[in-house]
Request: fold
Amino acid sequence: MSPAAAPRYRILFAASEAWPLIKTGGLADVAGALPVALKARHHDIRLLLPAYPQARATLEKPRPAGHFTLGGYAVELVRGRLPGTPVPVWLVGCPALFERPGNPYLGPDGLPWPDNAQRFALFDRVIAHLVGTASPWRWQADMLHLHDWQTGLVPALLHGQTTRPACVFTIHNLAYQGRFGYSTFATLGLAEDLWTHEGLEFHGDMAFIKGGLAFADRLNTVSPGYAREIMTPDFGYGLDGLLRHRKARLSGILNGIDTRAWNPAHDPHIASPYNARRLGDKTANKTALQRALGLKVDADALLAGNVGRMVEQKGIDLLCETLPAMMERGIQLVVLGSGEARFEERLQYLARQYPGQVAVRIGYNEALAHRIEAGSDLFLMPSRFEPCGLNQLYSLRYGTLPLVHRVGGLADTVIEKGDKATDNGFVFDAPHGEALLAALDRALALWAKPTAWRRRQRNAMRADHSWRHSAMEYETLYARALADRQAEQSAMELARRGKTVLAPQTV
Ligand code: ADP
Ligand code: GLC
Reply:
């Protein structure tokens, strides 16, 4: 198809976070970058987020864009642009629900806001309202792209409507499901017939995510590997049966990365820019990092980094468990992150045991995350499951060899097959300390051969993980969702005229 003939979609892209407006994890990276890539491919896209104070304050050129009442709440819309991009953003304001500082999901006590069900149910109702017949917009979306449980009710709210956009639901992490008791369900004013096993009911609770999984035209996850894994009981969190049932509608599309924000040749956060031809300049970043964090300044010591949420998913317990054995091998380690107090405390304790060899920083620090990517030799990701993972992709681009558990998106992007021409990291099979340490020993053996290490770094840096390719895959997914939607609409139309039709076959 010639570029001129390619379909242009009107896409409403709704998520609960998007960088740089607000970010807690990789979802924000995706929601802040994929719309930019789609806009660059001439789609007419609008990004929709709740109006958290931080998002309002960061929005470029904000201006009021109407107000209405929905479900008893006064809602105001604010429009603007995603900073530094041409992507239009619409924020959903509701002072009672979103006007709170800090984390979008957790209160200052580290626990979920007690009214999260009401907060995201309202957000979802607003989304459904904006694509419905009573929408205050003159702009009519033909594609609705939703992400994770916070937007899961939308396909359920739109289900059965004769005019609605096609709907794609992206699963970034099946472990977060938006589960609430029946008493909460009863307060949300949802149709009672959604309280079924085929609807939102899940083991006596409601699960927001089920709305997306059961009713979206197409489902996808953020890597082909995770798409396969979630159809098994080991990774399905009880939803594998439903996902197998919808197998024909489920696919995996690997995330891209924002290659402008994550570029070692032009990274304002790092001490010394470098590229694959000037890898020697990477050492200055290592020295700067060692100095800044109080590690022994030593170019020969293998410096391993880790950045992320300190939760079991990320295998942070494996890291703690193997840390003393790593130290015996003479490597250095820097860890940045925050999460469960037990992991934060354990890592801080271990850092005190190994002064000059281990540095731990608790908190969220974007500049330091860039410095760790640039200054480390190795990047540890022993995740128990990983839908995609972005840090291994940043690491590849920064020539910082990822050492990963063979799971989900990590298995799809990091290669260690014993082929000098393609290997770009280190991969271990079982989420156990021994397997991790065996991979570390392989890394140390390669570290002792600088030419071979350089070759692997160059292999890593050669990979193209820009969003362009993934954006094209999303276009194909949108086309499929639209075809499914049209088939459903024709079937509904025939049924309305009193005829029956066989369910369409989907591929
Ligand atoms: P997840 O979304 O499961 O947390 P990802 O690897 O997809 O994992 O994305 C995490 C994103 O959040 C990356 O961009 C990573 O650099 C960033 N990040 C996580 N923790 C921190 C932190 N403490 N400081 C800075 N950036 C962080
Ligand atoms: C989730 C996953 C992570 C993925 C990110 C963005 O938070 O845990 O693996 O990279 O979403 O899709």
Q: What stands out?
A: Residues 467-496 form the longest helix (30 residues). The two ends are 21 Å apart (CA to CA). The mean pLDDT is 95. The first strand starts at residue 10 and ends at 14.
